[in-house]
């Protein structure tokens, strides 16, 4: 795995990171099921008719996806705004992913741009990176389109937005993600992909979905990038 990972990283000119997973666990202190339940409660209080299964949905992004199928733009905006506010609250107690920071810093020291493309809101991503003194290392940041859940990954659009902003060919970039939507979106965009299997059952699913490499720790990427930075003329330059 380390050899194939090193080869992959040697063939790309930028690293794209999903946010919730590779960078941090945004809902570590404000659990995702609690946020989802709050969104469902909001819908119920507004008298919105929902399918029975939605009342026990643990993923707030799935509640938003359902809202996008409701046919009522007002409902979508209501859920979107509530989720954005919840994500900003969640950032205060988000748990940093082990070696996530090292990946970002080492990539920049090695001369590789680092971007974030996330199904979370850009405001939450920016708030986290600012609080953890990483904002200067990451650009661009592309979060989900406001009140347009159909444009979230696995839709390749946000991934391609990042690639175009960086001015690179898609196959000269790699997306690190911890969900099938990251792997599927990468394939649709023509971007390389690293599946971060932070839970063992994900590994085989990522391979079947076509991930170029599967890892179980962000430390694997950090190690390769630290070695690359050590041999880079930019290694001693400040990224700030």
Q: Explain this structure to me?
A:
This protein is globular. It has helices at residues 2-10, 32-45, 60-68, 73-91, 100-109, 122-131, 157-166, 180-189, 202-209, 218-230; strands at residues 14-17, 24-25, 95-96, 114-117, 141-142, 173-177, 192-196, 213-215. The chain is 47% helix and 11% strand. It folds into two domains: 2-26 and 94-230, HAD superfamily/HAD-like (Rossmann fold, 3-Layer(aba) Sandwich), CATH 3.40.50; 32-91. It has 240 residues and is α/β, with parallel strands linked by helices. The chain has a six-stranded parallel beta sheet, sandwiched between helices. It has a two-stranded antiparallel sheet with strand order 2-3. The longest helix is centred in the middle third of the chain and has 19 residues, at 73-91. The chain has ten helices and eight strands.
């Amino acid at each position: 795995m380390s050899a194939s990972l090193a080869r992959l990283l040697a063939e790309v000119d930028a690293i794209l990171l999903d946010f919730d997973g590779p960078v941090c666990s945004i809902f570590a202190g404000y659990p995702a099921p609690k946020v989802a339940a709050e969104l469902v409660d909001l819908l119920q209080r507004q008298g919105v008719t929902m399918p029975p299964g939605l009342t026990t949905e643990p993923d707030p992004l799935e509640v938003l996806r359902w809202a996008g199928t409701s046919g009522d733009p007002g409902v979508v905006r209501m859920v979107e705004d509530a989720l954005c506010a919840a994500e900003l609250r969640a950032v205060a107690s988000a748990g940093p992913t082990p070696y996530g920071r090292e990946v970002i810093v080492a990539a920049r020291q090695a001369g590789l741009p680092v971007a974030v493309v996330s199904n979370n809101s850009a405001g939450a991503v920016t708030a986290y990176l600012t609080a953890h003194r990483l904002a200067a290392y990451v650009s661009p940041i592309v979060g989900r389109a406001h009140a347009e859940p159909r444009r979230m990954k696995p839709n390749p659009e946000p991934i391609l937005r990042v690639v175009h902003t960086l001015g690179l060919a898609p196959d000269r970039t790699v997306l690190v993600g911890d969900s099938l939507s990251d792997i599927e979106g990468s394939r649709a965009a023509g971007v390389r992909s690293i599946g971060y299997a932070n839970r063992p059952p994900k590994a085989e699913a990522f391979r079947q979905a076509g991930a170029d490499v599967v890892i179980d720790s962000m430390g694997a990427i950090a190690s390769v990038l630290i070695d690359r930075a050590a041999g880079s003329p930019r290694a001693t330059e400040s990224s700030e």
